[in-house]
């Protein structure tokens, strides 16, 4: 199933040619009181909501909208964490030797370590930087190079800590397209990648049962119609179960947490007015305007 948040917090099911509005099922979510539980409230109660969605789809009065009339928000509203993996494709490691990317500070060399992630670990992006494709990207740091990075975004459905890699995929509810926008410079990665609108996730959540193998997905990115990035998730250096396990041994994961799995080669500058088209096989495609 493809679940979307659209048109200012409506809930929908995505079909090939239209969206079915199932917002009414949100009335069944348990009431919340302060202090709120960490994580996304919808994802935490998805097992409750899913059968209600299926019943809603059978009702004759369900509202249907054309895809072109829908503005997609991030399918996850309130992640406790946005966790990202640096340097997780070999060819991106190679291109990161460019001083314009590493600024002499974030060098990709990892001698003595099995992978770059064994050396650098994972990093966090601010939750306040999360947007959907409809919101677009507002560039920060005028005069500096801001780059696109397309990534497979893994959505955690069931939280946990110290998760074994062999059981990690049981904690995944689904997948989405992610854009990890970054400004190049000497500052810490989390700072440069956490600006408002620098984490784009969408256009919807594709549940895990729809993806036969998340390690065999083509992904690509165009800027103004020109292909910049094109690869396949089979080239991930550290795979998804390992990433989840590593993250959960440091951060207790919560429903709705977003794991950005790393970007392939071809990162490049975006400018105000650029149109990004990102696509991942089986998941779909999204267009994101840069301002």
- How many helix segments? 7
* Average pLDDT reading: 97
Q: Structural class of the helix and strand makeup?
A: alpha+beta
Pick out the low-confidence regions: none
Helix content: 10-25%
Shape: globular
Structural account:
The strands form three sheets. Strands 1, 2, 3, 4, 5, 6, 7, 9, 10, 12 and 15 form an eleven-stranded mixed beta sheet that branches. A four-stranded antiparallel beta sheet has the order 14-13-17-18, with no helix packed on it. It has helices spanning 41-44, 46-57, 90-95, 99-102, 116-120, 189-192, 240-248, and strands at residues 2-6, 10-14, 18-21, 63-66, 82-84, 123-125, 130-131, 146-148, 150-156, 172-180, 182-183, 199-207, 218-223, 226-232, 258-260, 268-269, 275-280, 284-289. With 291 residues, the protein is α+β, with helices and mostly antiparallel strands.
Could you give a short description of this structure?
This protein has 291 residues and is of the alpha+beta class. It has helices at residues 41-44, 46-57, 90-95, 99-102, 116-120, 189-192, 240-248; strands spanning 2-6, 10-14, 18-21, 63-66, 82-84, 123-125, 130-131, 146-148, 150-156, 172-180, 182-183, 199-207, 218-223, 226-232, 258-260, 268-269, 275-280, 284-289.
Task: From the structure above, extract its key features.
291 residues, alpha+beta, four-stranded antiparallel β-sheet, 18 strands, 15% helix, 30% strand
Set out the fold topology:
Layout: E1 2-6, E2 10-14, E3 18-21, H1 41-44, H2 46-57, E4 63-66, E5 82-84, H3 90-95, H4 99-102, H5 116-120, E6 123-125, E7 130-131, E8 146-148, E9 150-156, E10 172-180, E11 182-183, H6 189-192, E12 199-207, E13 218-223, E14 226-232, H7 240-248, E15 258-260, E16 268-269, E17 275-280, E18 284-289
Parallel strand pairs: 5-15, 7-12
Antiparallel strand pairs: 1-2, 1-12, 2-3, 3-4, 5-6, 8-11, 8-16, 9-10, 9-15, 10-12, 13-14, 13-17, 17-18
């Amino acid at each position: 199933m493809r679940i979307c948040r659209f048109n200012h917090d409506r809930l929908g099911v995505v079909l090939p040619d239209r969206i079915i509005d199932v917002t009414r099922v949100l009335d069944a979510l348990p009431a919340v009181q302060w202090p709120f539980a960490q994580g996304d409230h919808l994802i935490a109660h998805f097992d409750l909501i899913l059968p209600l969605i299926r019943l809603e789809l059978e009702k004759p009065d369900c509202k249907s909208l054309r895809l072109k009339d829908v503005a997609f928000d991030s399918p996850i509203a309130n992640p406790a964490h946005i966790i990202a993996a640096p340097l997780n494709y070999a060819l991106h490691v190679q291109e990161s030797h460019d001083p314009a990317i590493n600024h002499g500070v974030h060098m990709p060399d990892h001698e003595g370590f099995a992978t770059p992630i064994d050396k650098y670990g994972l990093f966090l992006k601010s939750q306040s930087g999360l947007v959907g494709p409809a919101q677009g990207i507002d560039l920060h740091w005028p005069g500096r190079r801001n780059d696109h990075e397309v990534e497979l975004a893994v959505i955690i459905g069931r939280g946990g800590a110290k998760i074994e890699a062999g059981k990690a995929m049981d904690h995944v509810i689904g997948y989405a397209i992610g854009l990890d926008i970054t400004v190049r410079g000497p500052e810490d990665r989390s700072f440069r990648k956490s600006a408002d609108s620098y984490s784009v996730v969408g256009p919807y959540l594709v549940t895990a049962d729809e993806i036969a193998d998340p390690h065999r997905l083509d992904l690509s990115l165009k800027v103004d119609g020109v292909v910049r990035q094109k690869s396949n998730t089979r080239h991930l250096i550290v795979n998804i179960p390992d990433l989840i396990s590593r993250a959960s041994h440091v951060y207790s994961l919560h429903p709705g947490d977003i794991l950005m799995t790393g970007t392939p080669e071809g990162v490049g500058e975006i400018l105000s007015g650029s149109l990004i088209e990102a696509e991942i096989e089986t998941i779909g495609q999204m267009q994101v305007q840069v301002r």
